[in-house]
């Protein structure tokens, strides 16, 4: 005769013919006193998550500036203004979000490089803390970091420079310099520009050029062509911010676990 399943067996998901318990949640689970081990497990899991957050801030990296989505069809800017150069040039970026330890810098360039030309570029970060006589705008001043020289290759490239968690302000200036190129055909490094404002973060429609030791603001075609560059900046929070967030998660977990225990 076919076995009859009781209501309790149906709820538990067990079958007397197989003797298998699928461990489906049952209301009696929340009525007995075995809630304490479950709370303890939850607390341990929350603690592990908090420790993980403090130990692995890389997982919290975020894009704080992104001008890569709309690359101009032209080949970019090569650091020359008014037939002079080559110069160190770049742009000041106002970052979104709150993460300020930069760990990646991505940009797109075109290398008009002859086969017999070897060129090395350097990426630099500056704080905008230098006064300009008669102006409120601050120029690039204190050097925050510079990369090791890297090879400029022929053709169109997107390059990702790993940055060792360099702290920057809400606004900072990046620059690129390729001193061995002449700026004429077959000897050019051209940083791509973008066709519209950045999707993340902000930048004014101008850029910085350094001649000798003096920085000056320049525009492309008197402002008719956008002077924002195709770059992306990623950053992580400061360790203190990560630890504070982890502590909040841990504290909430403790409160939740205690409240659940008192209600049993």
How would you summarize what this structure contains?
The protein is α+β, with helices and mostly antiparallel strands. It has helices at 7-12, 35-55, 239-262; strands at 62-66, 88-94, 101-113, 120-132, 135-146, 150-151, 155-167, 171-177, 187-191, 207-211, 214-218, 231-236.
Structural overview:
The structure is a single chain. This protein has 264 residues and is α+β, with helices and mostly antiparallel strands. The protein has two domains: 1-31, no CATH class; 60-238, Jelly Rolls, CATH 2.60.120. The chain contains three helices and twelve strands. Helix 2 (35-55) runs antiparallel to helix 3. The two termini are 42 Å apart.
Annotation keywords:
single chain; 264 residues; alpha+beta; Jelly Rolls; 2 domains; 7-stranded antiparallel beta sheet; 5-stranded antiparallel beta sheet; 12 strands; 35% strand; globular; disordered N terminus
């Amino acid at each position: 005769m076919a076995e009859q399943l009781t209501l309790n067996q149906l709820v538990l998901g067990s079958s007397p013919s197989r003797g298998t318990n699928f461990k489906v949640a049952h209301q009696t689970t929340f009525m007995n006193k075995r809630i304490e081990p479950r709370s303890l497990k939850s607390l341990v899991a929350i603690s592990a998550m908090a420790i993980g957050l403090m130990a692995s801030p890389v997982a919290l990296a975020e894009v704080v500036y992104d001008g890569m989505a709309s690359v101009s069809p032209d080949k970019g800017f090569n650091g020359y203004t008014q037939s002079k150069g080559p110069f160190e040039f770049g742009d000041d970026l106002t970052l979104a979000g709150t993460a300020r330890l930069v760990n990646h810098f991505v940009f797109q360039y075109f290398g008009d490089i002859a086969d017999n030309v070897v060129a090395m570029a350097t990426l630099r970060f500056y704080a905008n803390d230098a006064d300009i006589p008669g102006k409120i705008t601050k120029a690039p001043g204190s050097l925050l970091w510079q990369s090791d020289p890297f090879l400029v290759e022929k053709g169109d490239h997107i390059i990702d420079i790993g940055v060792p968690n360099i702290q920057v302000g809400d606004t900072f200036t990046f620059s690129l310099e390729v001193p061995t190129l002449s700026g004429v055909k077959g000897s050019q490094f051209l940083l791509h520009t973008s066709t519209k404002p950045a999707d993340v973060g902000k930048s004014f429609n101008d850029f910085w050029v350094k001649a000798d030791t003096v920085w000056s603001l320049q525009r492309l075609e008197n402002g008719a062509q956008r002077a924002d560059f195709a770059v992306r900046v990623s950053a992580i929070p400061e360790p203190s911010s990560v630890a504070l967030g982890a502590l909040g998660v841990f504290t909430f977990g403790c409160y939740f676990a205690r409240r659940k225990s008192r209600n049993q």
